[in-house]
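Run Catalase through structure prediction, thanks.
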Amino acid sequence: MAQASNSSSTSPNFERIPDEEDAWRNEIAALTVKLQEKRKSLQNGEVLRGVHPKSHGCLDAEFVVNSDVPENLQVGLFAHPGRRYSAKIRYSNADVLKRADIEKKKSNGTKVMNHGSRGMAIKVLHVDEDTLLADGEMQNQDFLMVNTPEFAFRNVRDYRRLTAALVASEDGATPDLFFLPGVMLKMGMMDMSGNLVPASASDTEQMIGLRTTFTQLHEVFADYSAADLQGVITASKVVEKIRKTATRSPHEATYFSAAPFQFGAGRVMRYSVAPMDSGLSDAEFTQDQMADLHEDYLAQALEVTLCSKTQIKLIFRVQVATADDIAGNEQEMIENAALPWDETKFPFVEVAQLVIQRQMERNMVDACKPLLFTPWHSLADHKPLGGINRLRKPVYSASADFRRSSGQSTL
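Sure, done. The structure for Catalase is below.
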């Protein structure tokens, strides 16, 4: 059963919160800190962000609201056409460890590569209005994105299983246990209800081992259900898409909020940042290019661009849905972060630009290290919605507090 969330009298209640979710969020926040401690030895004794620990660059930018924003989109940060704000941009890998930007493998004698999820965080400074969560002593608006229009994990229930799987892994950074039921499904060992198929005399040693893991690892697989298996199937499809999504330079990718946000009273948005130059290449690397890629190639590519170009411009755009669009579709449009909105029904509309001037500093990678990015640094008009955003509030806070208590300064 799901409980209704609190909402103002001027805005419909878009969220559908499971009764168990509050306990799940607290559990995940505590386990996130446990994982940060566990990964410390793998990161030169340093406590880093629970997710997105590897930065490709921290850039000074200007967030410029378009002068021709349609009147019906003049909401919140976009209510003042032509206004210019100072901003910070952080590009990162959406991973849990500092690892090589790309995984190179060999298959049938040919080199192949698995790409990772990429992140972009924008901090719009001094918005001059109260925010839902203060950013130190400042009122800033944060926008957090990844380079696919969907998250790999739909909701808090799925993320709880993932977190338990990470805790159970030897290094605290390997999610294989989360995906184990999907492997068993393909092998005919599990049905679509999430139940094990009875063992047979023809089971291989590998199958016996997988069955033992599933039945004995209660902290990960207790009370497994069809809903949990569907989460694995969904996540597997998104991960496969991520692995095939090439990124040649951080600023050349298109990024998406995936999760939804309030857009004033009675409307909801998802947002995105795209290159202004639509001719930039997202094609796969050739075999020769692949051989030359450094493990930090994204930071290198960004530095080359910023030192050579006078200016980079990016487009900030929004998809907007009304209460009528969402009515009856709350589970799909609000609570499922792994399901993109149909762009033919909800087209992206440009409302602002990001302008990045030439930057020659050599500390671009670490300059954002002290900053805390969270979607809850937000104007009320852009309140975060949905389970993944509700989860971010306690998890990001617990992660930042632990970094701070470990001597890693955060603002």
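DSSP finds eleven helices and 13 strands in the chain.
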